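Sequence, please.
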C-alpha cells in the first residue's frame, strides 16, 4: 500500500478543523461562559463581543475546511473500498446531516443577526446543544473509521482478471 500524501493532508486538516471547532465550543461551554457570568453587565458584553468577533472567523474557516476535506475524504474512501453491505453510507448520511445542523448553529451563535443576538441571550443552553451534537458527530466519525473496509481490487490482479481483447 502506497502512502497517499494528499489523503494524509486532507484527513489531517479535517481532524485539525474538527478539534479546533469542538475544543473551542467545549471551552466556551465549560469555562468562558460561566466565568463571564460573574462579570458586571458592561464588561461581560465587551468580553463576549470580543470573543464572538474573533471566534467567528475561526468558525467560518473550520466549516469551510470540514466541508471541503469531508467531501474529498468521502469520495476517496468511496472509490477505494467496497462499502456495499456495510452501514458506511447510512452512518455517513446521518453524520453529514448532523454536521449541517452543527454548522448552522455554530454560524448563528457567532453571527451578527437579530436571531444570533437572541440565541446568545441564552448562550448556555445553545452551547450545551452545540457541544452535545459535536460529541455525537465525533462518535459517528469514530464509527466510520473503525468499520471494516475491504479494498476494491485493482484491475488486472488475480481477483479481477484484465479484460481480453
Amino acid at each position: 500500500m502506497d502512502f497517499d500524501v494528499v489523503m494524509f493532508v486532507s484527513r489531517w486538516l479535517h481532524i485539525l478543523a474538527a478539534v479546533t471547532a469542538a475544543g473551542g465550543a467545549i471551552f466556551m461551554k465549560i469555562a468562558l461562559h460561566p466565568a463571564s457570568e460573574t462579570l458586571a453587565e458592561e464588561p461581560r458584553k465587551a468580553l463576549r463581543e470580543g470573543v464572538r468577533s474573533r471566534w467567528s472567523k475561526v468558525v467560518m474557516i473550520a466549516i469551510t475546511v470540514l466541508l471541503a476535506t469531508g467531501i474529498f475524504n468521502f469520495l476517496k474512501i468511496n472509490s477505494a473500498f467496497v462499502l456495499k453491505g456495510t452501514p458506511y453510507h447510512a452512518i455517513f448520511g446521518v453524520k453529514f446531516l448532523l454536521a449541517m445542523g452543527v454548522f448552522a448553529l455554530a454560524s448563528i451563535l457567532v453571527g451578527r443577526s437579530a436571531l444570533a443576538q437572541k440565541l446568545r441571550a441564552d448562550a448556555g443552553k445553545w452551547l450545551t446543544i452545540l457541544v452535545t451534537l459535536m460529541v455525537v458527530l465525533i462518535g459517528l466519525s469514530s464509527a466510520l473509521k473503525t468499520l471494516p473496509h475491504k479494498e476494491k481490487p485493482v484491475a488486472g490482479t488475480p481477483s479481477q482478471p484484465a479484460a481480453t481483447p
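The CA atoms of residues 91 and 143 lie 8 Å apart.
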